[in-house]
Amino acid sequence: MGLFSSSTQTIPITGDVPAHIAVIMDGNGRWARKRFLPRVAGHKRGVETVRTLVKKCAEINVKYLTLFAFSSENWRRPEEEVTFLMGLFMDALKREVFKLHENNIRLVLIGDRSKFGAALNEQIISAEQLTANNTGLVLTIAANYGGRWDVMQATNKMHLMNPAKAGKFEEQDINQYLSMHYAPEPDLFIRTGGETRISNFLLWQLAYTELYFTEVLWPDFDGQAFAKAIQSFQQRERRFGRTSEQIKAPTDA
Ligand code: IPE
Ligand code: IPE
Ligand code: MG
Q1: Which of 29, 94, 152, 219 could form an S-S bond across to 45 if both were Cys, CB 3.0 to 4.6 Å?
Q2: What is the pTM (predicted TM-score) of this model?
């Protein structure tokens, strides 16, 4: 069993501030093109938005922030862009890790690491190790991550660990093998850049997450835009299958 209950097995306790926010940081390329800049200028600028958002989340007591940085399908992009993104990731890790550590932030990377170079993998491991015991915000970066990859790798591990249960596995058996076993399911999902799709992000974990889509391009996603997302979240009624009446008068439910 994982540390956290599953939204389909137990009704989660929810609050006004999302405990876990998962973000698809989209629109960097379009931000740059609008300014007649190369697409990669948008990625570079996007790192600053990450910095601002991390600070904001820590301020309002969000416990987990998960950012989609590179999908398993992003390898389909032009080679120069992929190379630039890997370099940017490496530089950002190197540059930001001490500041994260000072701020008691724990950094975790999820995704298939086998396609990264040795230097990047070492940088990731050292950043994770340095911040492993921090008790503040848990910042997860999803890189070469795909929701289907995650479910499949977890399924394979689950089966390997308990072959005798084959054919009788239950939903909760998989939780401890999923990449995000250390976090509750996201309360709020944000996608910037105007597209209204999941793009193979956390498929399993988004079962009951509140989805928020905004036209704002990632480099423009500032404190005010974030506050709007939080406001929208606070207006939702999270029913998890129940009726509205049950939630308003839980005692006569
Ligand atoms: C998101 O911005 C960043 C990554 C996918 C790495 P995009 O690069 O997808 O920006 P658009 O969607 O082309 O504007
Ligand atoms: C999703 O954005 C992945 C990341 C933000 C890392 P994309 O821009 O790659 O998504 P699609 O291709 O438009 O669905
Ligand atoms: Mg995009």
Answers
A1: 219
A2: 0.96
